[in-house]
């Protein structure tokens, strides 16, 4: 592999992150406010996604339950992507499209937040989870890319859509990780003050 090709990945990533900074900073701040308000009211955050987005959901929950950069009490967050028995039982007994919605139905409460991560915006099981979150009177924060896909048509006025301005999956996922870190840092800053 050529060094130039590798350097181009870095340039493309940086350009996408700078473009995302311009469009996402304000809605990320709103998402931090929403998540903090839910946590301050004794609610929790559920997170879901497929593939790399599943890993992002787990990463987010780990940062809240454990810690991000500063010590603090654990915060209630749950990745709906981690229980193999639940994932396979729901997929087998119902349908894979219901794998997250069924968990939202069982675990979600009014005032909770669903962090729905789908690079394309078209993941059927994430869309079903969003619909179920609305039934449970939860707020949805959606992380997407590629124009947002079908997520655009499923969000309520009270939801927040963080759509990365890129068509490339790798670039979208890179900005998703940075967004997750911004969310965690913002929650910590609201809890403990800015350093």
Automatic annotation (TrEMBL):
It is an enzyme of class 5 (isomerase). The keyword Zinc applies. Residues 35-195 form the SIS domain. GO terms for biological process: carbohydrate metabolic process; D-glycero-D-manno-heptose 7-phosphate biosynthetic process. Its cofactor is Zn(2+). Zn(2+) binds at residues 59, 63, 173, 181. Binds 1 zinc ion per subunit. PROSITE patterns: SIS. The keyword Metal-binding applies. Keywords: Carbohydrate metabolism, Cytoplasm, Isomerase, Metal-binding, Zinc. Its EC number is 5.3.1.28. GO terms for cellular component: cytoplasm. Gene3D superfamilies: Glucose-6-phosphate isomerase like protein, domain 1. Pfam families: SIS_2. The reaction produces a racemic mixture of D-glycero-alpha-D-manno-heptose 7-phosphate and D-glycero-beta-D-manno-heptose 7-phosphate. Homotetramer. Catalyzes the isomerization of sedoheptulose 7-phosphate in D-glycero-D-manno-heptose 7-phosphate. Belongs to the SIS family. GmhA subfamily. This is Phosphoheptose isomerase. It comes from Paraburkholderia eburnea. The lineage of its organism: Bacteria, Pseudomonadati, Pseudomonadota, Betaproteobacteria, Burkholderiales.
